[in-house]
Design brief:
About 15% of the residues lie in helices and about 35% in strands. The chain is mainly beta. It has one domain: Pnp Oxidase, Chain A, CATH 2.30.110.10. It has a seven-stranded antiparallel beta sheet with strand order 3-2-6-9-10-5-4, covered by helices on one side. Strands 1-13-14 form a three-stranded antiparallel beta sheet, with no helix packed on it. A hairpin with an 8-residue loop joins strand 7 and strand 8. The longest helix is centred in the middle third of the chain and has 9 residues.
Length: about 200
Amino acid sequence: MYYQPLTQDHGLRHSPIKALVIPRPIGWISTLDAQGRPNLAPYSFFNVVCDAPAMVMFSSSGEKDSLRNCQETGEFVANLVSARQTKAMNISSTAVPSEVDEFQLAGLQAIASHSVKAPRVKDAPAALECKLHDIIELPSSQPGRRNAMVLGLVTGVFIDDAYIKDGMVDQEAMQMLARCGYRDYATVERVFEIGRPDD
């Protein structure tokens, strides 16, 4: 099949685009609002975009608390999600009023970060503390719906020591959760190495 998404309907039950660009890492974004209230929400439109300096992005479809909080405070934490946290991650995606603490809602403990005021998820295998670099407005095909990409400069990196083996991150042991299409998820269970031709 072939279709042009700006002008044609794909004819399928759901848009296939999110089922094609897979797996997508989940950025479990923790923030504080201007009043100091915590917020936690998972974003599958998330990734690292630069390594020197380290930078990450997440994009928000709609005017969500994470986006507003980043604008107000200039910081966030991108927590990484392990498979054992699947249920808590899903609970934290619930649409609730801004004053509701998703850490409590999902039965999670917030712990202080080092380089930003926003807390991180205590049991997350890794977390990237970020200062806001920029918010880039994106086009929206739905009138009145704001789409924006948040770029963060990584100012602190937490890795649970249990997942460091022989001086490297043990990716298989972390069992990182990733988003696929529709309501589908996957875990990183098998990692293999391929050397570059010019190594």
